[in-house]
Amino acid sequence: MKRSRINDIMAEADAMIRSHGFALPAWAYWTPDEFKARKHEAAEVIRARNGWDITDYGAGRYNEMGLFLFTLRNGRLDDLQRGGGMCYAEKLLISKQDQLSPMHTHALKAEDIINRGGATLVVELYGSDDQGRFDATAGGMVMCDGLRRDFAPGEKLRFAPGESVTLMPGHWHAFWGDGGDVLIGEVSTVNDDETDNIFREPIGRFSRIEEDVPPTHLLVSDYRTWLGAD
């Protein structure tokens, strides 16, 4: 993706987030130079990989297959493993009309996917085999707003604003907006986007960036190269 396109997506996403009554934290708007100057202060933001995240899954077709994300908070895997402390994460996502977030599951993360506003969110679901692998013949059960919902293999569940689905490890899912763009909330256990996304097809989680213009704000995938973060 070109950096200029990423900058435009950030501006569009910020406008949509604000239109639904949400606001991002002040550090979301720091320039790269401000982030460098305040990286000691922002050590926990950097460690947790909070911030802007825009992906085309390495395919170069963002409008057809892509996702906007902003990680607001993210706990520690050590806390999750010992069963105490900051075991949770929260994100805002935007799924554009007919923009696919491709079929995947998570080995560790449980998540609530919430339609926070906009159009209809469509979630396509499959179950797993006994090894946790994708199974085109497997259905299963999810909780929708706390109510049990059985699903057939490949069933497409539809969620209006205010509605939600709880997805557990082994729930294979893809999603997109129907009838317009959707602002999505994600509340989950600790999130690790580098290792805990298991895609059905061999695709990348992060985009390759062409630096045609300077970044307006840093992506989480920029932290290593721009800030020297681990």
Automatic annotation (TrEMBL):
<dbReference type="InterPro" id="IPR047581">
    <property type="entry name" value="EcSI_cupin"/>
</dbReference>
<dbReference type="GO" id="GO:0047828">
    <property type="term" value="F:D-lyxose ketol-isomerase activity"/>
</dbReference>
<protein>
    <recommendedName>
        <fullName>D-lyxose ketol-isomerase</fullName>
        <ecNumber>5.3.1.15</ecNumber>
    </recommendedName>
</protein>
<dbReference type="GO" id="GO:0046872">
    <property type="term" value="F:metal ion binding"/>
</dbReference>
<dbReference type="InterPro" id="IPR010864">
    <property type="entry name" value="D-lyxose_isomer"/>
</dbReference>
<comment type="similarity">
    <text>Belongs to the D-lyxose ketol-isomerase family.</text>
</comment>
<keyword id="KW-0479">Metal-binding</keyword>
<keyword id="KW-0119">Carbohydrate metabolism</keyword>
<keyword id="KW-0413">Isomerase</keyword>
<keyword id="KW-0464">Manganese</keyword>
<dbReference type="InterPro" id="IPR014710">
    <property type="entry name" value="RmlC-like_jellyroll"/>
</dbReference>
<dbReference type="Pfam" id="PF07385">
    <property type="entry name" value="Lyx_isomer"/>
</dbReference>
